[in-house]
Amino acid sequence: MIRYIPLAAIFGIIWCFVHGTFSLVSFIFGLLIGLLAIRPFRFLYRPEMNFRLFSPPNRIVSIIRYFMVLIKEIIKANIAVAKIVTKPKINISPGIIAVPIRCKTDLSITGIANTITLTPGTITVDISDDHSTLYVHCIDASDPAAICASIRDDLEKYVLEAFE
Amino acid sequence: MSGISVFINMIMNILSDIVLLIGLIFVFLGMLGLIRLPDVYNRLHTTAKIGTLGAFGVMLSILMRAGFAPIGIKAIAVGLFLLLTAPIAAHMITRAAHRHGVGLCKESIIDEYGEARER
Prior knowledge:
- The complex is a heterodimer.
- By secondary structure, chain A is mainly alpha-helical.
- In chain A, 59% of the residues lie in helices and 11% in strands.
- Chain A is built from 6 helices and 3 strands; from the N terminus they run H-H-H-H-E-H-E-E-H.
- Chain A has helices at residues 5-19, 24-38, 47-50, 58-86, 106-118, 144-163, and strands at residues 95-100, 122-127, 133-138.
- In chain A, helix 5 packs across helix 6.
- The two termini of chain A are 28 Å apart.
- Chain B has one domain.
- Classes of the chains: A mainly alpha, B mainly alpha.
- The interface between A and B is large, with 40 and 47 residues.
């Protein structure tokens, strides 16, 4: 149980945000609730993997750069979808394409999948059994090779730098 | 209360109104897309992206209006949770729909996921 204390401390900080007040009482309350919440789901955690995220100091810089790219892509995505929605005649050619990925760890695969969903015209549908291919639904799938190239060069580079 | 703090307060209120308006426009466009686009996969494009940014804009507007009071911090926590969970919900819905045999719309040109699952 003692090795789940750092995870429960993260829950405590999140509880401070949800409760809206940063005080020792609400932190300890969140920590205790966190311990109770972790107990039924502890088979999901692998403690030896969880705290590698902040080990190298220059990792912070690439995480910040990743989030800046993410915000830029989210705004671009919204404008692109808004354009499609407001056109008088909807003229789209959607489809599901297979995109090979280079990410290996669970954390970076989760990162790239969420990033793909939040960026222009693409939603992650599923991952292949050997964790090497993502299936991506595109709102404009007329050129699958170009979509694969844009995901590899524009998004995956930053995810690899930040999480792997 | 000096003049400067009143001025900053006014600027923040105007910014908060602008962000609220942008968020509401995006929520409106998302709902419009939900009605107009053809099938479940295309409709999720609007709810997963536009809905997220619209709701996040509304939450950001609350933060600007209330400052770092408890209500503002709660609002930004809700916004960050939405940003984290909306893609996962969209991912699970598309996957479940495809596995239940919901077909793609007739304009679709390619389905490599269906081909891979048949093999």
